[in-house]
Amino acid sequence: MPASDLPDVAGDQFRDALSRWASGVTVVTAAGSDGPTGITASSFASLSLEPPLILVCVGSDSGAHDDLCGADAFGVHLLARGQTDLSNTFASQGIDKFGEVEHEFHTTGVPLLPIGRARLVCARHDAVAAGDHTILMGRVVSVELSDDGDGEPLLFSARTYGRFQPE
Ligand SMILES: Cc1cc2nc3c(=O)[nH]c(=O)nc-3n(C[C@H](O)[C@H](O)[C@H](O)COP(=O)(O)O)c2cc1C
Where is 55: in which H helix or E strand? Predict the structure, then answer.
């Protein structure tokens, strides 16, 4: 039977399987139509080395979706251990996310948060709708790294935050 004829897996099974995956945590920001906007996103991935491309998947039900996916430029902050408050702030809805968070602006207008592990500025490369998310692709035009090269990333797995343990 062609796989395309098979039905979707049950939603709870799908979510349980994904919860066994571990990822880093990012905050993606852009200059929105009503001021700075952003979301917490763990769907970040590297996409291409030449040119240097990354991607992040933005939920269509996110209030920031149109601003992020339509922006000429956006920022990606790779969070460090200890930045769970920042992650929770940018995962919240209906609050002024930038109100109590230190930030500055890149020359492109992208709002920039304190560097965790690294901070990237991207020029919009493409945005492709896929299911209930949009795959937002960016060409990296600027990279800033934290001073402590040995610092740890913030991780997310099994619906909770954790830390990286080298084997
Ligand atoms: C650890 C973590 C990872 C998340 N990853 C994503 C993601 O990759 N894509 C996404 O659209 N939402 C993700 N979310 C949810 C968004 O952060 C959240 O829906 C968004 O901030 C809602 O705010 P808004 O409606 O103001 O845009 C994640 C949340 C958490 C806590």
Answer: strand 53-59
